[in-house]
Amino acid sequence: MNLIKKIKSWFSGKAPAEEPEARPQPQAPARIKKTCKGCGKTFSIDPSWEFIPNYCKECKQKFAREKEERQRSGAPRQIRRKCKNCGKFFTFPNTLPHYPNYCSNCRKAHQAAMKEKYGRPVKRKKEQNS
């Protein structure tokens, strides 16, 4: 009986409250503040980036728009670009509403792959036996 009383005392008694260990939470590195060289606006930078930009996002977009406007202005001509997929150079007229990033072969291959992946299934007509 002595053993049973001892076991009951283990389960009936309140155990001392253990304090949970205070683990330090992993903190994200503090973001760095930088001033834009174009407009003077301050913007934050993630220190894990490989490079530190000199211009804010809005100024970069403005530069890209100005570059495209300069390319579009003047007499119609051919623009030469490097394909993002295969790396070959291709040309296109500056009168296009949207400048392509891929050559025609890569563009066609990509469109065919997307059509095969997401296209509608082909319904076959039943042959009528009359």
Care to describe what's here?
This protein is α+β, with helices and mostly antiparallel strands and 130 residues long. The chain has 3 helices and 4 strands, in the order αββαββα. The chain has helices at 2-12, 57-72, 104-118; strands at residues 32-35, 42-45, 78-82, 89-93. The strands form 2 sheets. Strands 1-2 form a two-stranded antiparallel sheet. A hairpin with a 6-residue loop joins strand 1 and strand 2 (42-45). The protein starts with a helix and ends in a 12-residue tail after the last helix. 1% of the residues are buried.
Major β-sheet profile: 2 strands, antiparallel
Strand proportion, as a percent range, falls in: 5-15%
Low-pLDDT parts are none
Helix content: 25-40%
Per DSSP, the total helix count is: 3
Radius of gyration: 33 Å
| Strand count | 4
Indicate the mean pLDDT: 83
Mass-distribution shape: flat
Run of helices and strands: HEEHEEH
**Order of strands across the biggest sheet?**
1-2
Terminal CA distance: 96 Å
Structure class: alpha+beta
